[in-house]
Write a structure and sequence with these properties.
Blueprint lengths: L7 E3 L2 E3 L3 E3 L15 H9 L5 E7 L17 H16 L4 E5 L18 E2 L8 E4 L2 E4 L4 E2 L2 H20 L4 E6 L4 H6 L14 H4 L1 H14 L4 E5 L14 H11 L6 E5 L5 H11 L3 E5 L12 H4 L5 E4 L1 H5 L3 H6 L27
Parallel strand pairs: 3-4, 3-14, 4-5, 5-10, 6-9, 10-11, 11-12, 12-13, 13-14
Antiparallel strand pairs: 1-2, 7-8
Helix pairs in contact: 1-2, 3-6, 7-8
Length: 354
């Protein structure tokens, strides 16, 4: 039986355990989308995780969807992330950059003059978004042209090169939670009639090409993909997601990726996960759907072979030393939603140690 506290090899390195820190938006970037000293402190405190997966990092200017989020498309941003990765490595940790193009989830007020959010199709999300000017309705995005789709694929590859230059151990493409890759996958947001839309084999193409481009740029062994089949977050509609995701996994399985990251959502999620697990020959990172907070009780998913690594989200915010607390089955500090976002690190840098 495999233990969550056993080391495992990933991306040419040895992880100290099989506990991952899930990617979570923090909105603490400095001017110009750079990582700050607070960002370095935040991740270094959690270097006891076998693998840290960062908050979503935009691969291009138009990929930004929230205020104060970091990028990996300028020299200044790359240099700022080097300070973060150096600190995490010095503390014995390993860290992947999550590349997140938000697509239609954004607002013109977050972008330079003249830019608007882009998407597979001109379909606005229902709801509102927090911006520097308060809450605003989502706008109708501009549909990407065929050439622009390929340009966006190239943006992912260039951001991945920047991530390696910045010292990251690898990158994870965010294909979940209603952002750009997920928007291409879902029939409710992808109304295209060209080679990028329509049947499942076309809707998966953008994800496949982005993964292939990143793998070609930095090596498949440092490339990963996160998916969340059927997740309605950010007004996504996927009434029958499994065929598309099985087709997607079939296309990328032979590349030799670092891992596939599955974020479960809703009833039947475990059955879908097990189907993808059976199909994918590489490592599976699982962010499981659980009743209540995901804690030490979920570690059985590693012991029974459901997953190779288990990703923890909110509990890692309140417990920087979470792997140690999981080993002793608690006690756990309670996350404080008041400090989930923004520049105030209160509640995240001063929790009592175990």
């Amino acid at each position: 039986m495999t233990s969550a506290f056993e080391p495992v090899h990933l991306a040419g390195a040895t992880l100290s355990n099989r506990i991952a820190m899930a990617p979570m938006t923090r909105s603490r970037a400095g001017e110009g989308g750079v990582a700050t000293g607070l960002v370095a402190e935040y991740y270094t405190q959690r270097a006891g995780a076998g693998l840290i997966i960062t908050e979503g990092i935009q691969p291009s200017v138009v990929g930004q969807g929230y205020p104060f989020t970091p990028g990996l498309h300028t020299a200044e941003q790359v240099a700022s992330w080097r300070e973060v990765t150096d600190a995490v490595h010095a503390a014995g940790g390993r860290i992947f950059a999550q590349l997140m193009h938000s697509g239609r989830i954004g607002h013109p007020t977050l972008l330079p003059d003249g830019l608007v959010p882009v998407a597979p199709s001109a379909v606005a999300a229902q709801g509102q978004l927090f911006t520097g000017d308060g809450m605003k309705d989502f706008v109708t995005p501009r549909e990407l042209t065929g050439d622009e789709v390929w340009d966006t694929v190239a943006d992912y590859a260039e951001a991945a090169r920047n991530a390696v230059e910045a010292g990251f151990d690898g990158v994870e493409l965010h294909g979940a939670n209603g952002y750009l890759i997920h928007q291409f996958l879902a029939p409710g947001t992808n109304l295209r009639t060209d080679e990028w839309g329509g049947p499942a084999e076309n809707r998966i193409r953008f994800a496949v090409e982005a993964v292939k481009a990143v793998a070609a740029a930095i090596g498949a062994g440092r490339t990963a993909l996160r998916v969340s089949p059927g997740n309605p977050y950010n007004d996504i509609s996927e009434p029958d997601p499994q065929p598309a995701y099985e087709a997607l996994v079939k296309e990328i399985d032979g590349l030799g990726l670092a891992y596939l990251h599955v974020m479960e959502h809703g009833p039947g999620a475990r059955e879908a996960t097990l189907a993808l697990r059976k199909q994918f020959s590489g490592m599976l990172v699982l962010n499981p759907a659980t009743e209540g907070s995901t804690d030490h009780r979920a570690l059985t998913l590693i012991e029974d072979g459901t997953a190779d690594l288990l990703a923890f989200g909110a509990l890692f915010l309140a417990n920087p030393d979470l792997p140690a607390r999981l080993r002793t089955e608690g006690p756990y500090n309670t996350p404080d939603p008041a400090t989930f976002f923004g520049g105030d690190a209160r509640g995240y840098t001063d929790y009592p140690a175990l």
